[in-house]
Design a protein that fits this description.
Length: about 350
């Protein structure tokens, strides 16, 4: 009885040791679920331009693509474009002006998807100011953001309306609408999907001048960007990123209320002091992410050539030699290859 018992124990241990030896000798591969890190730089603090990213993150769609998405903290001291061109971010949220400007300085950027396919920005003034058309901006105070593109673009709008294009630009130290309401400035450049929504919620009486109605060619408002080098060496990585991102924006387009809540839930509690603004803004954005019967993110030469040439003609784009750049191949500034 005891002999049989000890023999059974010995046999059991022998079988276990044999199996372990077999596994080690044949080097059976172990399946790995390790995710690939992907760093995304935002252009600003989280807002409804970024909703699709946070939706895809919350839904696990980046993980489904094998990506560990890491959203880099926004810093006013370094732009998202610089983080991308310096290799500190794999992709970023940026603007057409930055794509043109950085490319002119031999720090090329490529737009890999348009968040908004049209320009939804414009100039706003208080109704009581008596300003009724762009030429009335002559001699007024503009609240600026420090971009070299602002003065030439606004000046052109004024000139096209019969003005001289001369105005004073002071850099904003407080919010755009706050500066306007306290009359520190006369007019400011805002986005319809955020500040204009805020003005409506606050009951502010204003006049608003959409850029595309005053001689400025239409273009994508906000875009995702990467470098040509990243596109060359990591096309599959960017494809996976855009696949998940497109899912996020399609969901945000169809379900604005749910998506706004996700944006709120995915960020620290103090990120959005006015929750009603987030929900109202998302309603606007969801209607403007993409044209009816069109694919989210899609771009074309027409939308990239008109406005890009306009800002080149303004003389605001300087090359590496610090001289104005007047010509550029616009077809290399964007690609649709990573869209689903």
């Amino acid at each position: 009885m005891n002999k049989n018992y000890f023999f059974s124990i010995f046999l059991f241990l022998f079988v276990i040791c044999f199996v372990v030896w077999q596994l080690n000798s044949h080097k059976v591969p172990v399946q790995s679920n390790k995710l690939t890190p992907f760093r995304l730089a935002l252009d600003w603090t989280p807002n409804t331009n970024h909703t699709g990213v946070y939706v895809a993150l919350a839904k696990g769609w980046y993980k489904e693509q094998g990506l560990d998405l890491r959203i880099l903290p926004y810093s006013p001291s370094v732009s998202s474009s610089v983080l991308v061109t310096s290799g500190k971010a794999d992709a970023g949220v940026s603007f057409i002006e930055d794509v043109v400007g950085e490319t002119a300085k031999n720090n090329p950027l490529v737009s890999i998807g348009a968040i908004l396919q049209h320009n939804t920005s414009g100039l706003i003034i208080l109704k009581e100011s008596g300003i009724n058309r762009p030429k009335d901006f002559d001699g007024k105070i503009y609240g600026g953001y420090g971009s070299p593109f602002e003065n030439p673009i606004i000046s052109e709008i004024i000139k096209k309306d019969g003005g001289t294009g001369d105005f004073k630009n002071i850099i904003l130290e407080i919010g755009a609408m706050q500066a306007l309401e306290t009359k520190k400035i006369d007019f400011v450049w805002i986005f319809s999907g955020w500040e204009l929504v805020q003005a409506n919620l606050d009951g502010i009486k204003y006049n608003y001048f959409p850029l595309i109605k005053y001689g400025i060619p239409d273009s994508p408002t906000v875009v995702f960007v990467a470098t040509p080098n990243k596109i060359k060496i990591s096309p599959e990585l960017l494809k996976k990123f855009m696949m998940a991102t497109a899912q996020g924006y399609e969901y945000a387009r169809l379900f604005p209320k749910e998506s706004a809540q996700i944006l709120i839930d995915q960020n620290p509690k103090d990120t959005f002091p006015n929750l009603k603004l987030v929900f109202s803004s998302q309603e606007f954005m969801s209607k403007n992410y993409v044209d009816k019967n069109k694919q989210w993110g899609i771009q074309d030469v027409k939308s990239w050539s008109g406005y890009s040439q306009f800002i080149l003609d303004s003389g605001a784009i300087l090359g590496g030699d610090n001289k104005p750049v007047k010509k550029m191949d616009f077809t290399v500034l964007f690609t649709n290859q990573f869209l689903p």
